[in-house]
Ribosome biogenesis GTPase A
Amino acid sequence: MTIQWFPGHMTKARRQIEEKLKLIDVVIELVDARLPLSSRNPMIDEILQGKPRLIVLNKADLADPAVTKQWIEYFKQEGFMAVQADASSGQGIKEIPLLAKELMREKIEKQLAKGVNPRAVRALIVGIPNVGKSTLINRLAGRNIAATGDRPGVTKGQQWIKVGTDMELLDTPGILWPKFEDQNVGYRLALTGAIREEILNVEDIAFFGVKYLAKYYWEPLKERFDLKDRPQDFENPDEIVAVMEAVGRKRGCIVSGGRVDLEKASGILLRELRSGKLGRYTLEAPY
Ligand code: G4P
């Protein structure tokens, strides 16, 4: 699902989140563990107006575990509470209400000291499309609540979902737009399938992916497509295209004259990459 974000959509999405912020205590910001910065909204700090925040690196099952650890450390150093999760299987989900409560600890302790019984922590999930907001809401709720493919601008009655005794969650997530200014961000999002291919050229996306994989994840790429020659100079486009051609030959993408159909080869490569056939990978590292 892809939303075409125009300035009007952004303003509306922002306003909707600001409305929801009035109702909640903590924000659960969902990012994709494979691209934790590129899958963030560029104005997130400003939009959330200092609300206590837990950053969840979702789809950790698809990401490189060593780099995910580095990212969690990075966010902690930035002053955030951060945790990894896999909303599809439910791995890491149990910790979320506990950490949300931890974010409110001071306030809860003050209330207890005054003899007031603290109510459940109220939370809102926010993130760009396709990071797994609906999947996480359904997981936390233990049933199907949010229709996947939610769109900004579609308003419906909001409800609280009880998550154990300590947390209540708004059933509609806050949807935000990704960064658009940086083309590499676009390529990373496209590689994971978060933005539609029509926006960027499929061969350019595959080129970006092959270059990155050849540099950081050569073994799985080599194994999958029986490759022989690793590029020596990653900045030399001919060497990257040679790898793409080898992938195309392996998958039978040959046109008349024995030429490799690069567009078809790129499509196949992207499908295999997105469906996890090339193993776990992370497209950006914090250090
Ligand atoms: P959104 O509300 O933020 O837009 O995201 P949504 O929950 O719809 O999830 C988008 C896709 O990501 C879904 O796949 C969902 O199953 C998958 N997903 C969510 N969380 C995880 C996770 O932790 N690990 C993995 N591996 N996948 C996750 P889908 O319905 O098949 O859509 P698509 O793959 O066709 O885009």
Remarks:
- The pocket of guanosine-5',3'-tetraphosphate is lined by residues 58-59, 61-62, 86-88, 127, 129-135, 148, 150, 193 (CB under 6 Å).
- The mean pLDDT is 93.
- The first helix runs from residue 7 to 21.
